[in-house]
Amino acid sequence: MVPCVGVGLILLVAGIVVLVDVNDYQHFVQDRLMAPPVVLIVVGSLVFLVASLGCYGAIKESPKLLNAFAVFLLIVFLIEIAVAIAAIAFKADLQDALRKQLDKSIARHNNADMAAWNSVHRNMMCCGIQEPKDWYDNLNQTIPASCCKPDLIEPETNDCKNAPPLFMDRYYQNMALKAG
Q1: Topology relative to the membrane, per the entry (predicted)?
Q2: Cβ-based neighbour number of residue 92 at 10 Å
Q3: pTM for this one?
Q4: pLDDT tens per residue across span 109-119
């Protein structure tokens, strides 16, 4: 039961870390990406509380508390199965919705979009949705400087050194949908 307390705390911390990390990309996904970390936090809290109940019941040698522990453990297990099934069932829908949002964002390329993309490019070391060409096709045949590998940025122009638009060795080649 003590390891369950640790697992509960790990799930809780993981949910909080993911929630904080997801906020960096909320510009693209609105509230769709907030559900998984919230579920992790809730399940982590439940596992922690249920494991604590089990520990307390074992220490007190109380059959009622141990039975309650077993029932709650079953409920947590069923919740985890339901979440896994939902994740598998909605994976394609989430990817399609994310792709549409990212396409719209590249097409708009306003200041808020560019700030969010710059953060994605630098943090994930990627460029575009599938490749740097995503930008080239949508942004007057240019690629944002944030796609450029940091050691190749020209300080005066904030662009890649000696790089024609699709000089691929100068740009991150990972894609935003696969980098994370």
Answers
A1: Multi-pass membrane protein
A2: 9
A3: 0.55
A4: 788 888 888 88
